[in-house]
Write a structure and sequence with these properties.
By secondary structure, this protein is α+β, with helices and mostly antiparallel strands. It is about 45% helix and about 15% strand. The protein contains 14 helices and twelve strands. The strands form four sheets. A four-stranded antiparallel β-sheet has the order 5-6-3-7, with helices on both faces. Helix 1 crosses helix 4 and helix 4 runs parallel beside helix 9. The radius of gyration is 23 Å and the shape is globular. The N and C termini lie far apart (about 60 Å).
């Protein structure tokens, strides 16, 4: 019997895709120009095996570093959500606890808490020696072998998926993961700025390497790509205190020699997935100097503080904030305050109002008790 996707199943993926995307232009066009017809056309393409990803939009971001971002069309994001919804459980079973990026119940806060717990456990709350190995991978997303990661997902589905859409998922796997958006994309960025992006951070239309940062499936691919490496470090090298967030890796141990001897084996293992270690950002050191990871510096006695880079970035954003309306102003400044709360920046939060441009003083006011900005003379925002 042929594997057929039902309309209700695709609609469920559409609802997941719609979250936080309602105001995007691509979303508006898909939804308001006959949503039912658009979903039916997409459903027909999937069931008839004629689906192909549409042209992506290419952007360049500057924070925290210059890099290309590819945004898939809304219809393609629906397909990605459908695909991930079907394989989520079997993918979770393949990943270790220390792999923290883009997973339900995990994220940056989870990774930082895990690292803090490891430091406290190994050092017994700062009483014993504690060391760390921090590994940074150079151009991680752009060095992923698309065919290799496609084969990994294909084998995962072939061997472990027991749902009713196995045929469809196997059909979609190479289409999703082997697609190179740089072959057919629309640039939504300044050409001069794009030319400044280092080659290791942008996709090559002629290369078989590289995944589009921003795609839901690319995030899943970045996790599965190093799943064998994660297990190698924990099971074979016996370095259990291991945390990875995409390409940032920290290993904590009470034995510095063990970390030193393991590093060459780690580098050889990474070569299997074509990864290169950024030697300048890779180090072995005592944890008592602090471990920089995901914008925070963590210490063996459980304390965490924001890194200097985060503080500098916050200052720069505050001084150059732009807005088109009072609502957008409140959204931006309160969003930044929310980020500061995650970094335990009490002093910086109290100073934040002084960092903003002087012309904003007539528009907004900061409530120190609530740690929130609101519009002056407008009770709705108080």
């Amino acid at each position: 019997m042929k594997d057929i996707i039902k309309f209700e199943e695709l609609y469920e993926a559409y609802i997941l895709c719609l979250k936080n995307k309602k105001n995007k232009a691509g979303t508006y066009n898909f939804v308001n120009y006959d949503l039912c017809a658009n979903l039916m056309n997409l459903l027909e393409e999937l069931n008839n095996r004629t689906y192909n990803p549409k042209q992506s939009n290419c952007y360049v971001i500057t924070d925290p570093a210059l890099r290309e971002i590819y945004a898939a069309q809304f219809s393609d994001r629906i397909v990605q959500h459908f695909y991930m919804k079907e394989i989520e459980n079997i993918l979770e079973d393949e990943l270790i606890e220390g792999c923290c990026s883009c997973r339900k119940g995990k994220g940056t806060d989870y990774a930082l808490n895990l690292l803090r717990n490891y430091l406290v456990q190994i050092s017994e709350n700062g009483k014993k020696d504690c060391y760390f190995l921090k590994i940074d991978l150079s151009g991680y997303f752009m060095s992923i072998d698309r065919k290799q990661i496609s084969d990994k997902f294909f084998q995962l589905i072939e061997n472990k998926y027991n749902g009713k859409h196995k045929e469809t998922l196997l059909y979609l796997t190479p289409i999703i993961f082997e697609n190179n958006p740089a072959l057919n994309c629309k640039y939504k960025c300044n050409e001069k700025i794009r030319n400044k992006v280092p080659d290791r951070r942008k996709m090559d239309s002629k290369s078989d390497y590289g995944m589009a940062i921003g795609n839901l499936t690319a995030q899943a691919g970045s996790n599965l790509n190093l799943s064998n490496f994660d297990k190698f470090v924990i099971n074979e090298l016996r370095l259990e205190k291991y945390v990875r967030y995409v390409d940032d890796i920290v290993i904590v141990s009470s034995e510095k020699d063990k970390l030193t001897k393991s590093l060459p084996m780690i580098m050889r293992k990474l070569e299997e997935t074509h990864q290169k270690v950024n030697v300048k950002k890779t180090k072995i050191d005592t944890a008592y100097h602090g471990v920089k990871f995901l914008g925070k510096v963590s210490y063996p006695y459980g304390y965490q503080k924001p890194s200097k880079q985060v503080i500098i970035r916050i200052y720069q954003k505050a001084k150059t904030i732009k807005y088109t309306s009072c609502e957008s102003l409140l959204a931006k400044v309160n969003s930044q305050i929310g980020n500061l709360k995650n970094y335990n920046c009490r002093n910086l939060i109290s100073q934040y109002a002084d960092l903003l441009p002087k012309e904003l003083e007539q528009t907004i006011k900061f409530d120190k008790d609530k740690n929130k900005f609101y519009l002056k003379n407008n009770e709705r925002y108080s």
